[in-house]
Amino acid sequence: MTDHIKNALRRVPAWTIYIVFAIWTGWEFWKALTGIGAYAVEPINVLERAYGEMALILLVAGLFVTPLRRWFGVNLMKFRRAIGVTAFFLVLAHFLVFAILDVQSLERVWTEIIKRPYVTVGMLSFAGLIPLALTSNNWSVRKIGAAGWRKLHKLTYPVAVFAAVHYLWLTKGFQIEPLVYTGIIVGLIAWRYWPKLGQESRA
After folding, report:
1. Is the pTM above the cut of 0.70?
2. Is residue 109 part of a domain?
3. 33 is in which domain, residue-wise?
4. pLDDT of 22-53, one tens digit each?
């Protein structure tokens, strides 16, 4: 089964991720615009959450790339850059829906960031993604150097943690989904840094 997966993945180009998620993002926006399905009530809030949740899923997927290679021999390294860049653009879309369609004022955006801790944490995650997205290209690797580039991209870990905390804080009442995301993120980061568990993952 694993060999079949490996062979199938070799034939899939990394740019497919950009196409698939561009279509998905546009389709979700269209559903919000026309009030289809779950978007019939509070379309802006539903769209904002849909973009944010998908970005979080992609962040988790990016963290899974190394463990999958280590545990199952499934190499998704060629997709990791596309996953990360797509996650950034979905977070950007999430923020734009919040800023332009929800609060509709730069002054109010700043007020929300200052006064609401879950927005503050979300903005920290967004801010951390910006240098990662800007340096997700071969030119940046050459300019910074491989070692410096790897150090910079360790920002992925606090970015993912802040994103999970943002989701936890945002959710009203007890819901299992944000707890699951948080547990997975913390577990993957612990695996990366805990002696013995992640000692072979740092290559």
Report:
1. yes
2. yes
3. 2-193
4. 999 999 999 999 999 899 999 999 999 999 99
